[in-house]
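Recall that a protein's primary structure is simply its ordered list of amino acids. Everything else, from secondary elements to tertiary packing, is in principle encoded there. The following example makes that idea concrete.
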Amino acid sequence: MSNSLRDQLLGLGFAAPKPDPRPKREAPKPPAKGGKPAHAGKAKPQQHRPQRREDIDLAKAYAIRAQKEKDERIEVERLKQEEARKRREAKAKLGELLQGKALNAGIDEADHVRHFEYGGKVKRVHVTAAQLKALNAGELGVVQLDGRYLLVDAAALAQAEAVFAQAVALKVDPDAPVADDPYSDPKYQVPDDLAW
């Protein structure tokens, strides 16, 4: 009962190995007497791989473009963060500058409302009659700070504009020419005999 290992494995259901259909590679020949390999004089057949080279070049191009886009996004984000930092510093400096310079009247004293446009919306500030006259004359101005609209004198308004120009909500120039009213044309005037 001397079965070989092969016979035992075949008996257990293992299949016999099939011969490899690929040709065997020959070992390189030793160099000839002159020190050159034996195949040195033979010309190798040219193998053209333009598709593979194109794939590599295309992959490199995509990688370069992706890296450039990533660098651009990083730079844009860095610039945004730098701009936000500058805005925070300017707002903090503006807060220190306007400390104690607000001229806003209390709710009991402010009997007039001055409307103005700021940030694309109509805003308002409560003022006294004297403050309203000074505000319309350009002697006072309005600065937005931390969601509040502060009434300040012209000198403080100029300083605030130098520190953080976006915070100036209302600055009246008394020397500015009056804008033409489009409804001043006679064709828009209401006739005297119009009955409602």
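The first strand starts at residue 112 and ends at 118. The two ends are 127 Å apart (CA to CA).
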